[in-house]
Design a protein that fits this description.
Blueprint lengths: L1 H6 L2 H21 L5 H18 L13 E6 L6 H12 L3 E4 L6 H11 L3 E5 L3 H4 L2 H10 L5 E5 L1 H5 L3 H4 L4 E3 L5 H11 L2
Parallel strand pairs: 1-2, 1-3, 3-4, 4-5
Helix pairs in contact: 2-3, 5-7
């Protein structure tokens, strides 16, 4: 692993290798060419490999770029969320992990308890991405300047989907999460 890390940053290895491979498998599953079990097994393997290549570093103990809550709208796939968390932590953000299968009440509770003003949501499938609408509506209805950003394959495939679900912004890849967080935090005052 150290030899791989020496040639390219681990986050970029994951972005350039695992993410496209999983996108291809997902597309083949959607076309009925692969059974769901194969895609699920590949996702678990990809998550394991991503953890070896780019483990989430511990939060920075001193200065922080801000608090950002992160959650997955999927029940079983955490690869995207883990990549986002790793990139945010590496950029100096305090990452609040709200877990998987995140719903509106858990999102609000997690943001209130942590003091995070930005929530980044990850989704790997369209049906999960559409659940962002309820989460974004609840966060915005709570008042204050709370912001919601989204990312994942459905938002890459349809560049207008983030607006349709009521999010305040979107990132096309996990390495773009720190810039998205910065933009959202700047407007969450």
């Amino acid at each position: 692993m150290a030899e791989l890390r020496a040639h390219e940053p681990p986050e970029m290895l994951v972005e350039r290798a695992l993410v496209p491979a999983m996108a291809r498998l997902g597309a083949e599953w959607a076309q009925g060419l692969l059974p769901a079990e194969v895609v699920a097994s590949a996702a678990r393997t990809a998550e394991f490999v991503a953890g070896l290549l780019a483990p989430v570093p511990p939060p920075a103990p001193l200065a922080s770029a801000g608090k950002v809550a992160v959650g997955s709208l999927d029940a079983g796939h955490t690869l995207g969320k883990r990549l986002v968390e790793a990139n945010l932590a590496a950029a100096g953000y305090e990452v609040i992990d709200l877990g998987m299968d995140l719903g509106p009440s858990a999102a609000l509770e997690g943001m209130r308890a942590s003091g995070a003003r930005v929530l980044l949501l990850s989704a790997s499938m369209v049906r999960c991405a559409l659940r962002a609408t309820a989460v974004a509506d609840a966060v915005h209805a709570a008042g204050g300047a709370l912001r919601v950003g989204v990312g994942g394959a459905p938002f890459r495939l349809d560049e207008t989907l983030w607006r349709a679900v009521g999010a305040d912004g979107s990132a096309a890849a996990a390495h773009e999460a720190p810039a998205l967080a910065a933009r959202l935090l700047a407007t969450a005052t």
